[in-house]
Amino acid sequence: MPTDLPQRFLRRIARLFNVEPHEAPAVVAGLAMFFLLFTSYFMLRPVRETMGIAGGVKNLQWLFTGTFVATLIVLPVFGWLASKLPRRTLLPWLYAGCAVLLAGFAVSFRLDPDNLWVARGFYIWLSVFNLVAISLAWSVLADVLRAPQAKRTFALIASGASIGGLTGPVAGAVLVGPVGHAGLLMISAMLLLASAAAAAALHRWRDAHPIQDGDGDTSRGEPLGGNPFEGATETLRSPYLVGITIFVLLLASISTFLYFEQARLVAEYFPDRAAQTRVFGMIDAVVQALSLIIQAFFTGQVAKRLGVGVLLVSVPAAMVLGFLALAMAPVFAVFVVVMVMRRVGEYALVRPGREMLYTVVPPAQKYKAKNFIDTVVYRGGDAVSGWVKRGIDVVSDNPTVAMVFAAVLAACWGVCGYFLGRREQALEDSSVGGQTPNGV
C-alpha cells in the first residue's frame, strides 16, 4: 500500500545503519552535535597548524608544554563546573563560554593580526578547547545511550564529526577571503552554540525514552557534586580507568611522534606557508572522507559482532607496520600513507571504541574522570613524548631511530587495547545480568 511505503523505507534505512526506529531522533541529534562542533573546529585547524610551524619546528615541544600547562589550569575549572551544574546543562554552559573566548580572539586578530604571541595563545587555546569540547560531547553520548546502543550507533553518530571535518576546511578556505580570520572565529562561535542546542535535544530524547532500570537516568538534571579534582582521584582508584589512561598515553605518544615527523617533512618539502596550509587541508579532507565511509557502514557492525577490543587493537597493529615502513623509507610519500592510516583508524575505529569503554562506568566517571583522561593525561602524553622525540632526534640525528621506538610503543598500545576490550565486555555482561560491576 502507498501509505506503507514511508514506513518500509525508514525500516530499510534503519536496518542499513543498524539503528532501531525509536533511536533515530537521538542519532540525528548526535550527528548534528558532532557535525556543528567539528565544522567549528576544523574551520580553524589549518590556521593553527601553520601558526605552529611559524614559530619553528624545533620549538614545537614548547607549544606542547604550554598546552599541557594550560590544560592543568582548565581541569579544576571544569571539575568545579561539573560539581555545580546539572549534567544536562554542563555542555551548553561550557560551549557558551568557549564561544565568548572565540569572540575575544576575533577582536585580537582584527586589531593586531600579526602578533606572534596572540598566535601562540590561539594555538594553545584551540588545542585545549579541542580536547575538552570533544570529550564533553562524548560524555553526553555515553550518558544518554547505553552500552548495547553505543556499539550500534556511536560510529554512525561519529560520522557527523567526519562530515564536519570535511565541511570545516572547505568553509574556512571559501570564507577566509571575504571575512578574514576574525570573521571565521565569529562563525565558529555561532556553530558552537548550535552544537550545544543539539546536545540539549539528546537529553530531551532520553527524557522521552527513560531507561527502565534507572542507572542514573533521573539524575541527569542534578549536579554531580564532589570536588574539582575528583576526576583525577576517580581515575587513580579504578584499575579499569588506569588501563584507559595507559591506552590514551600511548595513543598520544604515537600521535605526537607522527605530528613532529609531519612538521619536519612538510617544512622540508613545502617551505611556503600558504602551501603548508593547503597540504594540511588536503590531508584533513582525505582523512575525513575515508573516516566517514568506515564509520557509517563498518565500525558499528564490527563492534556489534566482534566487540570493542577489535576496534582498539586493529589500528595499533597497523601502526607497527607503518612506523617500520617509515624507518626504512622516511620520505613524504610514505609518511602521508602512514599519517592518513593512523588518523582514519583513530577517527573511525579507535575513537568510537575508546568512547564505548565509558558506557559501563558511573556518571561521575563518564564526565569527571573521562575529562581528566582526555585532557590532562592526553596533553601530558603530548608534552612528555614531544620532549622524548626531540631528545631522540638530538642524540641520533636520524629519523629511523625515532620511528623504530614508535613501533615499539604501538605494539604496547595494541596489547593494552586488547585487555581493555576484554574488561569492557565483562563489565557490560555484569551490568546486563543485574550485577554491580566490580573493579570499575
What does this structure look like?
- The C terminus is likely disordered.
- This protein has a single domain, classed as MFS general substrate transporter like domains (Growth Hormone, Chain: A), CATH 1.20.1250.20.
- It starts with a helix and ends in an 8-residue tail after the last helix.
- Helix content is 84%, strand content 0%.
- The chain is mainly α.
- The protein contains 14 helices and no strands.
Q: Which helices and strands occur, and which strands form pairs?
A:
Elements: H1 5-16, H2 24-42, H3 45-54, H4 60-84, H5 87-111, H6 116-144, H7 147-208, H8 230-237, H9 239-269, H10 273-306, H11 308-328, H12 332-356, H13 363-396, H14 399-432
Helix pairs in contact: 2-6, 2-7, 3-6, 3-10, 4-6, 4-13, 5-6, 5-7, 6-7, 6-13, 7-10, 7-12, 8-9, 8-13, 9-12, 9-13, 9-14, 10-11, 10-12, 11-12, 11-14
**Major sheet size, sense and barrel closure:** none
Please state the average pLDDT score.
Answer: 80
Q: What's the count of strands?
A: 0
Shape: globular
Task: Report the end-to-end length measured between terminal Cα atoms.
Answer: 52 Å
Question: Architecture, according to CATH?
Answer: Up-down Bundle
Gyration radius (Cα, Å) is: 21 Å
Contiguous low-pLDDT stretches (5 residues minimum) are 434-439
Structural class: mainly alpha
Strand content: under 5%
Q: Can you tell me the CATH superfamily?
A: MFS general substrate transporter like domains
What string, H for helix and E for strand, traces the elements in order?
A: HHHHHHHHHHHHHH
- Structure annotation, total helices: 14
CATH first level: which class? Mainly Alpha
How many domains is the backbone divided into? 1
CATH topology, what is it called?
Growth Hormone, Chain: A
Amount of helix: over 70%
